TrEMBL record:
SUPFAM superfamilies: TPR-like (SSF48452). One of its GO terms (cellular component) is Bam protein complex. It holds the Pfam family YfiO. Its main location: membrane. Part of the Bam complex. This is Outer membrane protein assembly factor BamD. It is found in: Cell outer membrane. Residues 1-21 form the signal peptide. NCBIfam families: OM_YfiO. Part of the outer membrane protein assembly complex, which is involved in assembly and insertion of beta-barrel proteins into the outer membrane.
């Protein structure tokens, strides 16, 4: 969070650090000094100072929280609340970061920093998205929160970043479906694998996983002897991703059976193919 840390405030941080060290048991970086007798700005500057100089943001949170307690209706309390959210997030205390960010949005919905608070809230979900194999609940929550930033603050400096992260999170969900689909396919559970690959083709068609999903559909349908569906999947793949190595693989599988990558019969894939030809998909 750079908004409140200018060259002037950096000087103020150092001065505030000196001021607050005269209180109680000293004021080394990371040591929490009683602040009841100090002005809101002095406490705020100490919080900034700790955030910049102490590896543990918890001490900075302490000072920002004290401003809320001692000066709850001041402008410094508002600024301290957004800095609390930032400090918690920097410390990877995502639940507390969400709580502070949400309190800011609820209390100051029209403030200029509401967009940043919403963005921090979304990041608190997004930065918890772990490896593909983990539960995807946080990914859905990240997508929802990122969408709110994009829709509510489209002209803000955070919208572009939110869009990029939304696409990555969306791709992450498709990756989860692919992982499960490959697991079923490898073990011969073809119908179950088809269901997963179909989700990618129908619901995540703009992600990087679509070409492989179509190739895997060719593989699974051929294993079940459903040649019409396999050929249609190959046709969709060839129409959109002919230069992809996944198309080369699918084409080789079809050719090995004396088949072609062309639409056959009537299935959900035939409908997809028609949409492709009409330019309504991808």
């Amino acid at each position: 969070m750079v908004r409140f840390v200018s060259s002037k405030s950096l000087m103020a941080m150092a001065l505030a650090g000196l001021v607050l060290t005269g209180c109680g048991a000293g004021g080394d970086a990371g040591e929490r000094v009683p602040v009841e007798n100090f002005a809101a700005e002095e406490i705020y500057r100490r919080g900034e100072y700790e955030l910049e100089n102490n590896r543990d943001p918890d001490t900075a949170v302490y000072y920002f929280s004290e401003i809320e307690r001692l000066y709850p209706y001041s402008q410094w309390a508002k600024r301290a609340l957004i800095m609390q959210a930032y400090s918690y997030h920097r410390n990877k205390d995502y639940e507390e970061a969400r709580g502070a960010a949400q309190r800011f949005v609820d209390t100051y919905p029209g403030d200029d920093d509401a967009a940043y608070a919403k963005y921090l809230l979304a990041l608190s979900y997004y930065d918890q998205i772990d490896e593909v194999g983990r539960d995807q609940g946080l990914t859905f929550q990240a997508l929802q929160a990122l969408r709110e930033v994009i829709e509510e603050y489209p002209d803000s400096e955070y919208a572009r970043s939110a869009i990029l992260k939304f696409d990555l999170a969306f791709d992450h969900l498709a990756g989860k479906e692919m992982e499960i689909g490959r697991y079923y396919l490898k073990r011969g559970h073809y119908a179950a694998s088809i269901n997963r690959f179909r989700v990618v083709v129908e619901d995540f068609q703009t992600t990087t996983h679509t070409p492989e999903a179509l190739m895997r559909l060719v593989e699974a349908y051929l294993a079940l002897g459903l040649t019409d569906e396999a050929q249609t999947a190959g046709a969709v793949l060839g129409h959109n991703f002919q230069s992809s190595p996944f198309y080369e693989d699918a084409y080789a599988q079809l050719r090995g059976r004396g088949l072609s990558a062309s639409p056959k019969g009537e299935s959900w894939l035939t409908n997809v193919y028609r949409q492709v030809i009409q330019g309504k998909w991808l």
